[in-house]
Amino acid sequence: MISVVIPTLDSGETTGAAIRSVPPGAEVIVVDGGSRDDTVAEAERAGARVERSPRGRAIQMNHGARAARGDALVFLHADCRLPDGAGEQIRTVLARPGVAGGWFPQRIEAAGILYRLGARGSNQRARLLRLPYGDQAIFTRRKTFLEVGGFPEEPIMEDAGLARRLRRAGRLDPAESAVITGTEHWRRLGPILTALLDYLTLGAWLAGVPPKWIAKVYFPLQQRARNRR
């Protein structure tokens, strides 16, 4: 069985659509970090099992993985939607020899060439550096996830941290179809500044800057952009 873990925090507008995109027969676990909107009610209406944990995306996803019953885990952001046929694609990738996990190519749900280029850059990064991000719906076997230690419980770059851990166990292969990614992350600063900030963040992380230091710069910039809207 496939278990899909969705971390949420004030994600009521998008959580239902994320849950409804999950393959038939899959277990859906929403792990809420203290939402003050109707996220939990929306998740329950859409048929998910709701767990609660301390706030923090890595903390929430690790909690969901421990609560999961499936032998394959998919980590889906609340503003993303899996493509049709995702279940079969996950099983196909994980059945390949030498594969420790996989990810879905990204398609941003917005018109315009800059968004298409942003998605293309994200997909090339995942392929060339073997570092998919969380909005590319990373998946792996539950056994492998537990063996590598799950997500590093850092305030940022936890997804790249998991990818790095999984690479020690085998390859990370892309699925065939694209996951649909929401536009909120890309619209705050605009696609150009968002891509620039993301690559600077990645560069700092690859250079060994502690994630807690990166977060002290990254999140205030994001909050300032959100407040201007």
Structure description:
The chain is built from 10 helices and 10 strands. The protein is an alpha/beta fold. The strands form 2 sheets. Strands 3-2-1-4-8-6-9 form a 7-stranded mixed sheet, sandwiched between helices. Strands 5-10-7 form a 3-stranded mixed sheet. The chain starts with a strand and ends with a helix.
Summarize, please:
The protein is an alpha/beta fold and 229 residues long. It contains ten helices and ten strands. Helices cover 47% and strands 18% of the residues.
Radius of gyration: 16 Å
Helices and strands: which structural class? alpha/beta
- Overall mean pLDDT: 95
- End-to-end C-alpha gap: 42 Å
Q: Assembly type of the shown chains?
A: single chain
Strand content: 15-25%
Pick out its properties.
229 residues; alpha/beta; three-stranded mixed beta sheet; 10 helices
Topology:
Layout: E1 2-8, H1 15-20, E2 27-32, H2 39-45, E3 49-52, H3 57-67, E4 72-75, E5 80-81, H4 86-94, E6 99-103, E7 106-108, H5 113-129, E8 139-141, H6 142-148, H7 158-167, E9 171-174, E10 179-181, H8 184-189, H9 191-206, H10 211-228
Parallel strand pairs: 1-2, 1-4, 2-3, 6-9, 7-10
Antiparallel strand pairs: 4-8, 5-10, 6-8
